[in-house]
Every structure is written in structure tokens, then in C-alpha cells.
Amino acid sequence: MGALDEWDTTKLKQHRAIYAAQVAEDGTVPPVEMEARLLEALLRYDDERVRIVELIPQFIELYNVGEELAEDMMNFRSTLAGIIEELRPNITTLQSYKPYDFRLGVSYMVMMNTMRENKDIRDRMQQDQEDPDTLLGGYTRDLRQHYQAVEQARGALEKSYQSEALQERIEHIDAELARRDQAKSS
Fold first, then answer.
1. Is residue 133 part of a domain?
2. Taking the model in full, what pTM does it have?
3. Is residue 136 part of a domain?
4. Per residue in 85-133, pLDDT tens?
5. Residue 72 C-alpha from the chain's centroid
6. At what angle do helices 67-87 and 52-62 cross, to 10 degrees?
7. Which residue from 64, 74, 93, 147 puts its CA 20 to 30 A from 161's CA?
8. CA 179 to chain centre
């Protein structure tokens, strides 16, 4: 967008109409409300993600995990449970979710990589991950479904930010048009 004072009145009105149409199409839900919706979706996704704590003993049994790896898995379980207990109750905003998500995500990935180091377990996990009738496949399917809701909420938040920016442009154009009308009448 060029400097408003360089545009003629017709061009200003054209851009205003374009921006107004886009705002009308995208809606005018305030970003703060959309951020709250995104946080809700993230927490629902997280509820599904943290089910891994309950599932670890079942994975150990199902995959006939050796004693050393089983001990590691139970340690990861304790770590994940500690992160959840320590940080999850304090999540009230998207900003407070980020450190929790980071710590939980890193621990989760390390655990999964540790399991995948065993070729037999890795091969079986890869097969099971795509079969929703297996423990891992059902868990993976549920995670994906919940994450789709997160992606939708994230997209809606982005549209809300865009609408807010367009609304600001409309206000600037209105102010410029009002300034020009006042200058004409003076």
C-alpha cells in the first residue's frame, strides 16, 4: 500500500471497498478471542498427547521391550508426568503454553527416538502406526484428528490478525478521506 496522500480519492475508495469486502468475508472476531480458541484446541490436543503416559506400560508389554529399555521408558514416563504436573496447571495463554509444549515435545521425541533405536521395535512401530486397530495406530489417529482442530484454530487466528490489519487500513483511508473533505470545505 502506497502513501495514502499520493492516491487520488477514487483509488482510496477502491482500496477501502476491497479491504471492507475482505474483512466481511473473514469476519471480525477479535484476535484475543481467536487466541483463546487456539489455546482451547491446543489443550484438547495436549489431553490426547499426554495419554502417552498411560500407554507407556502397555507399549512395553506389547512390544516385549527388554529390561533396560523398559526402565528407560518408565523414566521417560516419570519425566513426562513431572512436566505435565509442574507446567500444565499454569497454562492460561498461548505464551504460557509454549515452554510447556517445548519441554514436553522434546522429552516425547527423545523417548520415541530411544524406542526406535531397537530395529525390531522400530519396524513394528512403523507398521502399527498406520493401523488404527493397534494401540499405537489408534493413538496416532487420535493425535492427528486433534491436531487438525489446532490447525483450523491457527488458521482462524491468522485470518483474525489479517482482518484487524485490514480494519486499521480502512480507518487510515477513512481518516484521509475525511481530511480531504475537510480541506475541500475550508
1. yes
2. 0.82
3. yes
4. 999 999 999 999 999 999 999 999 999 888 888 888 888 888 999 899 9
5. 30
6. 170
7. 147
8. 42
